[in-house]
Design goal:
- This is Acetyltransferase (GNAT) family protein.
- The protein contains 3 helices and 7 strands, in the order E-H-E-E-E-H-E-H-E-E.
- The chain is of the alpha+beta class.
- The protein has one domain: Aminopeptidase.
């Protein structure tokens, strides 16, 4: 597997984001009313297997100290292989390189596997923030990144 940077406009990233949003709507029964938004200010990483992007995740700066993980997704046929965990580590490294001290994220209460991944990777629950405040299915997490020596 290869993890590489891709632009937000990359067709494979766009297809993964659409698949992620469709799966989220199916998982929550369409209750959260999410709309697919293309964030052009997100730096995307793609997990590539056999020349095909099978997973993605993005990093968006909230401020100088904080980056937010966006659109973490691995196609169902590729789950259980550690791809999401490797993407998460690569996104944390990208955040560190961009000078962020903290990485935060939002996920849904109806996604226990995602919550398990984040908790087992050192993310701690935080209060729901920003655009997620009014969504009763949102849960948010944050992780302090190591300080450079």
């Amino acid at each position: 597997m290869l993890i590489e940077t891709r632009p937000a406009t990359d067709p494979e990233i766009a297809a993964l984001v659409v698949a992620q949003q469709r799966e989220l709507r199916d998982a929550d029964g369409g209750l959260d009313g999410q709309v697919t938004v293309v964030h052009t200010d997100v730096r995307y990483l793609a997990a590539v297997v056999g020349g095909r992007a099978v997973g993605c995740g993005g990093l968006q700066a909230l401020d100088a100290d904080t980056g937010e993980l966006k659109r973490m997704y691995v196609r169902p046929a590729y789950r259980g292989r550690g791809i999401a965990r490797q993407l998460l580590v690569a996104l944390e490294e990208l955040a560190f390189q961009q000078g962020h001290r903290t990485v935060c994220l939002e996920t849904g209460t109806y996604l226990p596997a995602a919550i398990g991944l984040y908790r087992s990777s050192g993310y701690e629950p935080i209060p729901v923030y920003g655009e997620y405040v009014d969504n009763p299915y949102s849960v948010c997490f944050a992780k302090r990144l190591p300080v450079a020596a």
